[in-house]
Every structure is written in structure tokens, then in C-alpha cells.
Design brief:
Distance between the termini of chain A: 19 Å
Radius of gyration of chain A: 22 Å
Number of strands of chain A: 5
Helix content of chain A: 40-55%
Largest interface: A-B, 33 and 33 residues
Structural class of chain A: alpha/beta
Oligomer: homodimer
Order of helices and strands of chain A: EHEHHEHHHEHEHHHHHHH
Largest sheet of chain A: 5 strands, parallel
């Protein structure tokens, strides 16, 4: 079962593409992309634009290969009727000073950001999905570390509500092309590889911008080898090269100076170009109709799986699913 | 056209009963009763209980004689899908310090109260009712003075959004039975007359508790007359006695000492007992089915009145109403 929130997050595809957001223990998991969050945190974006971006992002999620019969993707603004009662329970149990402490918000921040802390957390609880999740089902949340304050507060509330606490797993941030001390920026193209880049752009960006941990000259590289910990091409390969044996070989050869930065970059370019081409082809196959199917919470295919499910596999007598 | 929010407000019936919440200029008006507000501001109440109270309150509103073909009553939690996008626009434009200044909230207050400021204001704008209000329709809000900070902020936001600002009219608070310097309390029965009281209880409360502005003795009353400004029975008659001529006669006679407190209380008892009996009889006629009709935003009878309405009275080609 996968629950995915469709918002306007820039690089969210990685969580899906690399499998961090996959089913665990046959329960629930969620990858957060929120149209309302985007709207509240980006002064320049209108709500309709955030909703459109959310819809387009859903195509990227779907292109990663999720099974529609087990996946529900939603935009917060579409699904708010089910989220809101749960969010209210959470909001009632978080004080302003807790929220300011946890998120570092200031008095000049808009009040929507505070409210959003609870909206963000509400899909962590099965009662947000009454038409297809069994009450008490525990939620599993793969998340980037910057989302942690939300869910730590949320786990505290769960305790007081005697609801099952969501389980969290943190994904690492990928370094920007310029290295660990730098940040990817949506407005600075050279800082990141985009899923919309052409293979040529991918290769060019890697060659030109990816920070090298190798020697400054051929001689230095051959003499001292590369520092893998700060080498962006190697760090990226660790994420995207599926063949662990090859990765180990590259690591050894590169660290010892036997392999050169250019060769590692070439291999990374091949790997990412293939991945991006595959993703772009898969994404082309995703039409609006398929997105609407993923976004429909009242599908029979979802209900049968969860409401009144019996061990024999035969559906038990089902309660009427609540309209959403 | 009347929009009424069904929550758990205690004395809200007055606004309807006395007509403050009636149609104005064929536009919109709203009387706020919010299940989410009740929940966030009352530590002891659960959300389901607030929703139940909201439903029961709707019966009191309906019993005041609203026309179902022109009236939409809603609980925030039911109608949040339409309110939320508008609330987001408002939340984005109100900072924490504005909200703290306007409402006097503290850091120990729950974050829901801050968010609610925007939910509260969202029905002030026609885009919250896309299936039956013409875009740009101005809203008219009869309100108690304590609600004013919400709507003052909301008018400021409207200005920046170039949305029509809601028009406000303030209703006075009725003094508690014990007089102007005291407060009605839901937990102290002797402070207020309830619409659920029997005529006998009404008369007894008025006789026993209503603060008199008359003389302490028969002689004093005859010599000095009554101070109408602090006399609760007279203040109540000003609200509930429909016959303005009789009210003036009573005022003159009572102020001059010709009429005694007991007589004024007797008249008030008759007036209120009759009003309450009528209301209770009308309320008995309101069944759950009628409430559901008032609470259905997708009724044809509402849409025909507003969407694509033409001056000739013939319905123009209608856009599909959005599902809620």
C-alpha cells in the first residue's frame, strides 16, 4: 500500500525511484508532496499553480512504477475533508511555543505555516483513510531529515492520543553538484540534475560542475588517489549504480589513483542518462486519466484490499466506505 | 440567500430569531457556528461531540424559519474542501504577530486557534461557494462584537487580494440576567434563559434573577422610578417585544415609577415564554432529513438561483457545479 501526496516538490522522484517510499510490512507509507505547503512557503506561487504542479508531480511518482491497485496519490487540497478532522486533533495538542521551537518559525511567518504542521502530519494516521485503511494500521514514513521536526511532534501527539506512532526512516540529502557544503537550487540549473534534462545536458553538467575529490593533476591523482567522501560523481554513483560489485571496484580503483575522475564521470553520465531516459519514456505513458485513477480515494480496488480484509483472502462483509 | 455555519454556539438562536441574520440586498449573509472552533477552544469537548452539537444547532437555526430553497447551513468539517483553498489564501497573508495582536493569543495557545482565524473568515468570500454564488458577490456578516478581530483582519486581506470586502454589522451582547457587569455562563443556569427552558422555568428565572433597575422599595420606585439602562427585564423587552408602541409605554411608566418591576417582569415572562414555546414547537418539526437538505451544497434549488442566473429569470446555460 502506498500513499503519496502530490505537491510541487522538486526532486521528490528520487524517493520513489530508489525505492525508499515502497511498501513496508504491507502497511502504509507516504512520500510528502503538498500543494498547500508549496503555496504557503513560496511567496511567488499561486494556489492554482501549486495544484497544477502537484498534478504534474504525480506523473513523476507514477512513472516510477507504482501499482495503481495499491497506491493512492493525493493533493492535500483535494483530500482535505478527510485530513482536516485528524489535523484538528493534532492542532489542538500542539502549542504555539512548541511549533516555534520545533520549526524555528518567527513572528513574521504566516499563520498557515503553523497550521500546516498538523496537516502535514495527519496522513500519518489510519483514520485519514477510512475508506481503505484498517483502523490502527501503523504508518511508515520515509522522509528527508528536514521533515523530522514535523513528525517528531506528531509522534508526541500520537502518544497522547493513544494512536499508533508513525515509524520514520530518514533519507539522506544528495549533495549538490558543487559538493557537500553547497545546496541544490531550483533556480540555479548548474547545481542539480533534473529528470527533465536531456542525456547530453546530464553528461555536460556532470563533466563541468560535479565536484571532484580526485587529484588536481594526473600525477597527483595517480600518486594520492581520490577522496571518495567528498567526490560528487562517486557519491552519486553510490545512489544510482545498482551493481554493488561494480561500485566497489570503481571505489577501490578511484581511491587508489588507478582510475581517473573523467572515467568516473563518464560512468556516472551513462548511468544517469539511462535512468533519466527510462523515466522520461515511462512518464510519457502516464496520461491525465491514469493520474485521476491514482487520485481517486473511493476506488473499489483500494477498498477491497483493506476494509474488512480476511486472512483467507475473501472479502468480509464490508462497511459502507465514507464519501470523501 | 443565507449561509449558516452550524456549530455549537450557545445563544446563536437570537441572531436568527430577531432577524439580524436575514437576507440583505439579495446577497449573502452568514451566522457563524463552527464545530472546529468549538473543538479547538474547548479543551473538554471531542470533535465528534462538536459535530453532533453542530447538527443539533442547525435545527435551532432552521426552526427560526429559514427558507431551505435559499439557505445553506454547513459545518466547517463537512464543507472544508471548499473553504480550505480560500483559507490558505488568507493564512498566507496574515503573520503570526498580526494574529497574536488581533486575538490576544499567547504562546501557550494551540496552533489550531491561529489557523482557525482563516477558516472562520473564508466563507466571507463568494469563491467558497462556487456551486451557487456568483463570483464577486459581496458578503454581509451580522456578528457579535467579539468576532470583530477576525473580520477586520479578513477585510485587510480582501483589500490585498482585490476581493470584495465583507460588510459587517455588529449585534449587541444581551446582558446576563444579573446585569450589565455580569456574564452569561453555559455552566451557571441562573445567568441565562435557554431555548430549552419550560415557560415555568423562564418565569421563575426572570422573577428570581433578573437585575432590577427599579426602586428598592415600593415607595422608592414610586418616588424615583426605574433606571431603564441597567434594568435587565426592560433591556430584554427591548429585544423581544415586537410592539414598539407598547415598549415605549412600558418604558415611560416604569421610568416614572408608575409601573413596578414585578409588572415588567410579568410582561417579559409572557413574551419570552411564548417565544420559547413557539420555537420549541417549530424545532420539533425539524427532522434529520430536513437538516441534511439544508446542509447539501449541491442542491439544484440552490444552483438555479445563482449560477448563470439571467435577468429574465430563465436559467442560463450552467457550468457543472463542482463536487464538494
Amino acid at each position: 500500500m502506498c500513499l503519496a501526496r502530490a505537491g510541487a516538490g522538486g526532486c521528490s522522484w528520487r524517493a520513489c525511484g530508489r525505492g525508499e517510499a515502497r511498501t513496508t510490512q504491507g502497511e502504509g507509507d507516504e512520500a510528502p508532496w503538498e500543494d498547500d505547503e508549496k503555496f504557503l512557503f513560496k511567496p511567488e506561487l499561486g494556489l492554482e499553480e501549486c495544484r497544477r504542479l502537484g498534478f504534474e508531480n504525480a506523473k513523476d511518482i507514477i512513472a516510477c512504477g507504482f501499482d495503481p491497485s495499491k497506491t493512492f496519490i493525493f493533493r492535500d487540497t483535494d483530500y482535505i475533508r478527510e485530513l482536516y478532522p485528524v489535523a484538528l486533533e493534532i492542532q489542538k495538542r500542539i502549542t504555539l511555543s512548541q511549533a516555534m521551537g520545533a520549526f524555528g518559525f518567527q513572528k513574521s511567518d504566516n499563520i498557515g505555516k503553523f497550521a500546516f504542521a498538523a496537516i502535514q502530519s495527519s496522513p500519518s494516521f489510519a483514520q485519514s483513510f477510512p475508506s481503505f485503511l484498517k483502523p490502527g494500521t501503523r504508518c511508515f514514513i520515509p522522509q528527508a531529515i528536514d521533515q523530522d521536526p514535523y513528525f517528531r511532534l506528531c509522534r508526541g501527539v500520537a502518544d497522547r492520543m493513544k494512536w499508533p506512532k508513525p515509524a520514520l526512516i530518514h533519507s539522506k540529502f544528495l549533495p549538490a553538484l558543487q559538493g557537500h557544503q553547497t545546496k541544490m537550487s531550483a533556480s540555479v540549473e548548474s547545481t542539480a540534475l533534473y529528470m527533465t534534462d536531456t542525456p547530453k545536458q546530464i553528461r555536460k553538467k556532470i563533466n563541468k560542475y560535479a565536484f571532484s575529490g580526485g587529484g588536481a593533476t594526473l600525477e597527483e591523482q595517480q600518486k594520492y588517489g581520490a577522496n571518495l567522501d567528498v567526490d560528487v560523481p562517486y557519491q552519486y554513483l553510490k545512489i544510482w549504480l545498482d551493481d554493488d560489485e561494480e561500485l566497489e571496484q570503481i571505489g577501490k580503483a578511484y581511491a587508489s589513483g588507478e582510475m581517473l575522475t573523467g572515467e568516473v564521470k563518464k560512468r556516472l553520465g551513462d548511468v544517469v542518462a539511462e535512468l533519466v531516459e527510462k523515466h522520461q519514456a515511462a512518464r510519457k505513458e502516464v496520461d491525465d486519466e491514469l493520474v485521476h485513477r491514482f487520485m481517486d480515494p473511493n476506488r473499489e480496488e483500494l477498498r477491497r484490499k483493506w476494509v474488512g480484509h480476511t486472512p483467507s483472502g475473501a472479502p468480509a462483509e464490508e462497511k459502507e466506505a465514507q464519501p470523501v
